[in-house]
Write a structure and sequence with these properties.
GO biological process, one term: positive regulation of transcription by RNA polymerase II
Radius of gyration: 58 Å
Keywords: Coiled coil, DNA-binding, Nucleus, Transcription, Transcription regulation
Distance between the termini: 165 Å
Number of helices: 5
Organism: Carex littledalei
Main location: nucleus
Oligomer: single chain
Subcellular location: Nucleus
Helix content: over 70%
Strand order of the largest sheet: 1-2
Amino acid sequence: MGRGKIAIKRIESITSRQVTFSKRRKGLLKKARELSILCDADVCLIVFSSTGRLYEFSSSSTKAILDRYAKSKEEHHPLLNPNSQVKLMGEDLSGLSITDLQHIENQLEFSLNSVRKRKEQLFTEEIQELNRKVQLIRHENIELSKKMNRAHQEKMELQKKLHAGDELNGFSKRPNTAVPYAFVISNYEKHGPRNSELSQINKKPNVHARTNSASLG
């Protein structure tokens, strides 16, 4: 059976850690040497163990490779070099050749393009964030409008129910102004003869008036 896959994390056991370091260090140095021979590459490998012991491999002079590395670092990252920063500010340009000036100009254009791209990216991200907030606020407004409409409908329905209840209560409490039929009959029975006597009395003066007019004639 093959070996299980080793998790890439710190080995807690000191003994196992030292054994693993020794095996992998030898393999790493071997790979660096093979790379320099097979590909004709300048390879410099520096390793410090956890105890501070130095292990190194260099296909040529270690100092020469490190100097070359530092120079290349300054060329590709001029802002890391204080002297390059002064030159990029347009100061202390005396003694520079046309090639050096062209190189500085190219670096400035590259830096300016990088700044502009980063600025545009930030603007785009900010616009996207604002659009997202606008959409969120719009959605919240729609939900609030729906809630307000539902509340208004419930209020109208409640008012209709209350109005219908008030009308029903008002009809039941309305005083009965109609005169009962029995009361009309009783009044007729009580006051009917009296009214007839009054009518007879009212007719008598008319008879006397007629006799007086006949005697005068």
